[in-house]
Design goal:
Elements: E1 2-7, H1 12-24, E2 28-31, H2 44-60, E3 65-71, H3 75-81, E4 89-92, H4 97-105, E5 111-115, H5 121-133, H6 140-147
Parallel strand pairs: 1-2, 1-3, 3-5, 4-5
Helix pairs in contact: 2-3
GO molecular function: ribose-5-phosphate isomerase activity
Protein name: Ribose-5-phosphate isomerase
Binding site for D-ribulose 5-phosphate: 8-9, 72-76, 107, 117, 141, 145
Length: 149
């Protein structure tokens, strides 16, 4: 699977750790930055390019491409990502298996936005692992709802 990563200063350190872990799992990574810690950077500068390219790729191959965006809370990152057609970003700032699974099973989320200030590295690894392996249910009611976006 190809995974698109983006982070601002608040998510930079966690992104770097998760990037290394994802590569060890055999995933291809497309990293849109930040590439260094800069406390004055702005999250849209990283999320917009990542979500824009991901949206193009998802239109052709939605099954083998996902995004993981890192910020302080994940909220702003999701707001930016969700402005791009075909991108469905879910926010996680507290480890909860049900929320992780439902974001995939019911909403077919293709971007996971993580609140780096609220999650520990081990929680993020567990969350990302579960999120990647969870499939969309393909139930008609969920397909119908997503089509209304």
């Amino acid at each position: 699977m190809t995974i698109y990563l983006a982070a601002d200063h608040a998510g930079f350190e966690l992104k770097e750790k998760i990037k290394f872990w994802l590569q060890k799992q055999g995933h291809e990574i497309k990293d849109f930055g930040a590439f260094s810690f800069d406390p004055a950077d702005d999250y849209p500068d990283f999320m917009n390019p990542a979500a824009k390219e991901l949206a193009v790729v998802l239109a052709k191959n939605p099954e083998n491409n996902r995004g993981i965006f890192f910020g302080g809370s994940g909220q702003g990152e999701a707001m930016v990502a969700n402005r791009h057609k075909g991108v469905r970003a879910a926010v996680l700032y507290k480890y909860d298996e049900d929320i992780i699974k439902l974001s995939r099973e019911h909403n077919n989320a293709n971007v996971l936005c993580l609140g780096a200030r609220f999650l520990k590295e081990k929680e993020v690894i567990r969350a990302v692992e579960l999120w990647i392996k969870t499939s969309f249910s393909n139930e008609p009611r969920h397909k119908r709802r997503i089509a209304k976006f």
